Amino acid sequence: MNTPKLLIVGSGTMGSGIAQVAAERGLEVVLYDMKREQIDKALTTINGLLQKKVDKGKLAQDEKDSILARIQAVDSLGEKAAACDFVIEAIFENFAAKVQLFQELDKVCKPEAIIISNTSTLSISKMAEAFRDPTRFMGMHFFSPVPVMRLVEVVRGEKTSDATLAKGMELVAALGKTGVIVKDIPGFLVNRINCLMYNEAARLVEAGVTTAADVDLAMKLGMNHPMGPLEMIDMAGIDVATSALEALYEMTGNEAYKPAGILQQMVKEGRCGRKTGKGFYDYN
């Protein structure tokens, strides 16, 4: 595959992470967000992460400069979007907002562009209805932090074509990631399993069976997991995990996905994990 040009819509944690990885791998990136302050924040984050590599001797200063030069930040869709070969949507998890965005992208992107959603829970097949040609739409669920995590779930919707899927897998390889192809089911593969583990671990703490620290210690020593489930949910964001559980519960009707009361309470209190300084653990 020739070096593709990539448009990333949304410059939050996931969007900026994908942009960094793509630029490091030599791809030309257009990073779009309607909020200029969010774009500036994303570029500052990327610059800081790359500078850490420079400081550790893992990246030369001129290489860092070249990587940053490959990321073009914009706050409006237009000619830049029309020139891109792939589009990755990485906005917040809201079905209506994503569909509205896809309808706009369907108008401005070239007909042969592959359009991808980074959704972790929403139906690719249902969102595909926003497109005149749904065969060019697929899912690609990256994991956080994107520069570190090697897996991408490549999600095939009901109308995703073989050619689109093949090009998507080529893009995953170009990004230096490993892709696993999954059908369009609620939660896909990893979240379907992980959310159950998060929820059950939280319920055990809520019931007073044991402590968060001992849940994590047991899973690390007993199952050889590098991190315990409550350490993981703190890193991912308790609000993010709770939203995923709510979506899975709504879509499947499986009571096992109904968010534990302790998770709902922590979100209300703003205790969302590392990013807020406190979750199951105190990071202050």
Topology:
Blueprint lengths: L4 E5 L3 H12 L3 E5 L3 H20 L5 H9 L1 E4 L4 H4 L3 E4 L5 H14 L5 E4 L6 H4 L9 E6 L8 E6 L5 H13 L3 E6 L6 H17 L5 H12 L5 H8 L1 H15 L8 H8 L16
Parallel strand pairs: 1-2, 1-4, 2-3, 4-5, 5-6, 7-8
Antiparallel strand pairs: 6-7
Helix pairs in contact: 1-2, 8-10, 8-11
Structural write-up:
By secondary structure, this protein is α/β, with parallel strands linked by helices. The protein has 2 domains: 5-183, Rossmann fold; 190-276, N-(1-d-carboxylethyl)-l-norvaline Dehydrogenase, domain 2. Helix content is 48%, strand content 14%. It contains 12 helices and 8 strands. The protein has helices at 13-24, 36-55, 61-69, 79-82, 95-108, 124-127, 162-174, 190-206, 212-223, 229-236, 238-252, 261-268, and strands at 5-9, 28-32, 71-74, 86-89, 114-117, 137-142, 151-156, 178-183. An 8-stranded mixed sheet has the order 3-2-1-4-5-6-7-8, with helices on both faces. The mean pLDDT is 95.
Largest sheet entry: 8 strands, mixed
Uncertain residue segments? none
CATH superfamily of the largest domain: NAD(P)-binding Rossmann-like Domain
Secondary structure: helix percent: 40-55%
Average pLDDT metric? 95
The sequence of SSEs as H and E is EHEHHEHEHEHEEHEHHHHH
CATH class of the largest domain: Alpha Beta
Please report the number of helical segments.
12
* Spatial strand arrangement across the major sheet: 3-2-1-4-5-6-7-8
Radius of gyration: 19 Å
CATH architecture of the largest domain: 3-Layer(aba) Sandwich
How much strand content do the residues show? 5-15%
Distance between the termini: 46 Å
Tally of separate domains: 2
Q: How many beta-strand segments? A: 8
Structural class designation = alpha/beta
CATH topology of the largest domain: Rossmann fold
Overall geometry comes to globular
